[in-house]
Design goal:
The complex is a heterodimer of chains A (350) and B (333).
Chain A lengths: L2 H27 L13 H8 L7 E4 L4 H7 L3 H8 L23 E4 L6 H15 L5 E6 L6 H12 L4 E7 L2 E2 L2 E2 H4 L5 H6 L5 E5 L3 H19 L2 E6 L17 H8 L3 H5 L10 H7 L2 H12 L5 H24 L5 H9 L9
Parallel strand pairs in A: 1-2, 1-3, 3-4, 4-8, 7-8
Antiparallel strand pairs in A: 5-6
Chain B lengths: L1 E5 H15 L3 E5 L15 H5 L4 E3 L4 H13 L3 E5 L3 H4 L3 H8 L2 H4 L9 E6 L14 H5 L5 E3 L4 H13 L4 E6 L6 E5 L11 E4 L4 E5 L2 H15 L4 E5 L2 E3 L3 H11 L2 E8 L4 H13 L8 E5 L8 H6 L4 H20 L1
Chain lengths: 350, 333
């Protein structure tokens, strides 16, 4: 793999982590309100998948999508300003954390109804197939979504009409607070998908290289006319489901197991799990990121000093994003009405 | 030049004309293709336009309606047919949480040029799960537009206008209107999609209705004329937005308003119509606004009970007569 891609993926992961930790901080300050679902622990999926996609491919995401937007290239300023509900946000302050849109980058939205990304992605793919274009639609979903009717309806239609969709399941083992063995009769998601004649594989979602590789191959198969493909990425979120959720339903031993990828996490192994502070999370911030950093250093793709520099760079980007969001204007009700009615402004209604 | 067409044929021609003019228009739904549509609206289109543009779907209402939403986001003009409004309950997530909200949620960065066509209403003894109305539910969804054509000409015009529009639009078609006949002029200029039409002028009472009951209201007005009561009949043609100006202008002339609907009375479409017109026309009214609506009951299978559950022509005549009498008595007093 090219050095440039490796560096970009690491930088993306570090940016996602720093962005989300800062978002948590801004949430406790009251600058961000409402539901906030954070991504730490799952960064390897966004970085691996989206960096394997082309600029004309579409991304459809759910409500844990800040990282997906950042990796896709939406400026951190616009993502942060959206969290702050400002007019400069990527959805002009109308969508918030769960509804981020950037159609110019073919980032077709954050949707907060579990399973809703599936039919929307299938619809975009239907349009692509009708027009005979070489584009692919990447559809993110969580393990909680696999028990929704829309998931099964969409897999069936995508397979039936061989639509160019790559389904990416970010399996973090929890449907909010219910562990997968308690919500799915068949806990291996890829097995259920195989029933629709869709090639499906399970990969280590903590390893960005494996995610990138699997995505690249799946996209190639789709572009060759192989129909929809499915990748189940096994991953883990270090925080609760949202800021309203301390995540205490997860056994301490489980969280520890996922932190045991690296020596730094081992240092906190004896600490009873409680709602983590930003400092604690910074320490845990090795995990998938650390795994990748070690790999790059071992392979002489990167020096430890480079990592420090990258961390400082992304921190600057995040600081700047927060300043931008703080200083941005609030949207007005007139602008909201204008967005609601923008599609028919040239029509005479009555 | 106009020709006599059945309501379903008018819809069929509208589909054909739009599909021929714009290859981003496509239709999908249960049995719309090979079978030709349960009410024949898509008859012949599969042979003419092929399976990608006339797509038979599995029975997955929420899934294929959501597919329509996704396709609309990237510039297609999907026309989703939901076989009957009863099954639309399964698709409400795609319509309410999807189509209606994306334009605002995206800060105006995305449009949803989607049409959802749905047969509905009380037909002939189809029983509770196949005989209901959902206009009240849809009217309460910001971001949707709702057209309710009652004539073949309106069916033709409003379907074409809905397809051409960049908004998500629901077309409520009445199952008992599909085989009614009327003149359709393809070349005539259409009135704006949501304008109400005064079907009959009158000086004594204004009857506001829509869809099949707008037709029944005209029959009732003919009966009333024999008694010397001149009723104005307004066909709303649209339930969202509603053309209040046309209604108010009539009420200010007649001073009496009767709202007739097939929807259930409690929190039905008529509740909004009478509330809004009462607020606006209170000082012009000689009597309280009256509503005539369906009973609050799941539709019984038995034919006599089914008929008794929704307003009939005789009910409209009686209600209008009573309203005129009550108003003149209170004036005399």
């Amino acid at each position: 793999m090219e050095r440039e891609t490796l560096h970009r993926m690491l930088r993306d992961m570090l940016l996602c982590r720093a962005f989300e930790e800062r978002a948590a901080e801004e949430y406790s300050k009251g600058n961000i309100v409402g539901f906030l679902h954070l991504y730490p622990g799952e960064e390897a999926v966004a970085a691996g998948v989206i960096n394997a996609a082309g600029p004309s491919d579409y991304i459809v995401s759910n409500y844990r999508e800040h990282g997906h937007a950042l990796v896709r290239g939406t400026p951190a300023r616009e993502v942060m300003a959206e969290l702050f509900g400002k007019a400069t946000g990527m959805s002009r302050g109308m969508g918030g954390s769960m509804h981020m849109f950037d159609p110019e980058r073919r980032f077709m939205g954050g949707y907060a109804i579990v399973g809703q990304t599936c039919p929307i992605a299938v619809g975009i793919a239907y349009a692509v197939a009708m027009r005979g274009l070489p584009e692919v639609v990447i559809c993110f979903l969580g393990d909680g979504a696999v028990n929704q009717g829309t998931f099964h309806e969409s897999l069936n239609m995508a397979s039936l009409w061989r639509l160019p969709v790559l389904f990416v399941c970010e399996n973090n083992h929890y449907a909010i607070g219910t562990e997968i063995h308690r919500h799915s009769a068949v806990p291996e998601v890829f097995k259920r998908v195989a029933a629709y004649n869709i090639p499906a594989e399970k990969i280590d979602g903590m390893d960005v290289l494996k995610v990138h590789e699997a995505t690249k191959h799946a996209l190639e198969r789709i572009r060759r006319g192989g129909g929809p493909q499915f990748i189940e990425c096994e991953t883990y979120r270090y925080r609760g489901h949202s800021m309203a959720d301390p995540g205490t339903y997860r056994p301490a031993v489980e969280l520890k197991a996922y932190q045991s990828w690296d020596p730094i996490a081992a240092a906190i192994r004896d600490v009873e799990f409680k709602y983590p502070t930003p400092e604690e999370l910074a320490e845990v911030g090795s995990d998938n990121v650390k795994l990748f950093v070690d790999h790059l250093i071992d392979g002489e793709h990167l020096a430890a000093a480079d990592v420090e520099e990258m961390k400082q760079d992304v921190q600057k980007i995040v600081d700047d994003a927060v300043q931008f969001a703080l200083q941005s204007a609030k949207p007005t009700m007139d602008s909201a009405m204008d967005y609601l009615n923008h599609a028919h402004r040239h029509e005479v209604l009555m | 030049m106009s020709q006599e067409l059945l309501y379903w044929q008018a819809l069929n021609r509208a589909m054909d004309h739009e599909m021929a003019a714009d290859d981003s228009v496509f239709t999908l739904g249960e049995d719309v293709g090979l079978y030709g549509g349960s009410y024949r609206v898509t008859e012949g289109l599969y042979a003419k336009y092929g399976e990608w543009r006339v797509r038979d779907t599995p029975i997955s209402e929420n899934g294929f309606t959501g597919l329509g939403v996704g396709a609309a986001l990237v510039g297609m003009r999907p026309v989703v047919e939901i076989m009957t409004i009863n099954f639309m309950l399964l698709a409400l997530d795609s319509i309410v949480n999807g189509a209606a909200k994306i334009p605002l949620m995206s800060g105006g960065r995305l449009k949803v040029p989607l049409v959802v066509r749905v047969p509905g209403g009380i037909a002939r003894q189809l029983a509770a799960q196949h005989a209901q109305r959902l206009e009240h539910t849809l009217m309460n969804v910001p971001g949707l537009r709702i057209a309710v054509p009652s004539t073949p000409q309106d069916a033709y015009w409003q379907l074409r206008q809905a397809i051409a529009s960049d908004d998500p639009i629901i077309l409520l078609e009445h199952e008992l209107l599909y085989f009614t006949k009327g003149p359709v002029d393809f070349a005539a200029e259409a009135p704006p999609m949501h304008r109400a039409i005064v079907r009959r002028q009158g000086r004594d009472v204004t009857i506001v209705s829509y869809s099949r009951h707008a037709v029944l209201a005209q029959d009732a007005a003919s009966e009333l004329a024999k008694e010397g009561i001149e009723a104005a009949v307004i066909d709303l043609r649209s339930l969202k937005p509603v053309d209040w100006d046309t209604c108010a202008a009539s009420v200010e002339k007649t001073h009496r308003l009767l709202v007739v609907e097939e929807d259930c009375r409690f929190a039905g479409a008529g509740a909004e119509i009478s509330a809004a017109l009462t607020e606006r026309c209170f000082y012009s009214l000689d009597a309280p606004v009256q509503r005539l609506a369906g009973l609050d009951i799941p539709t019984p299978y038995n034919g006599a009970l089914e008929a008794a559950s929704i307003p009939q022509i005789a009910d409209i005549v009686a209600a209008a007569r009573q309203l005129c009498q009550a108003a003149s008595e209170s004036k005399a007093a």
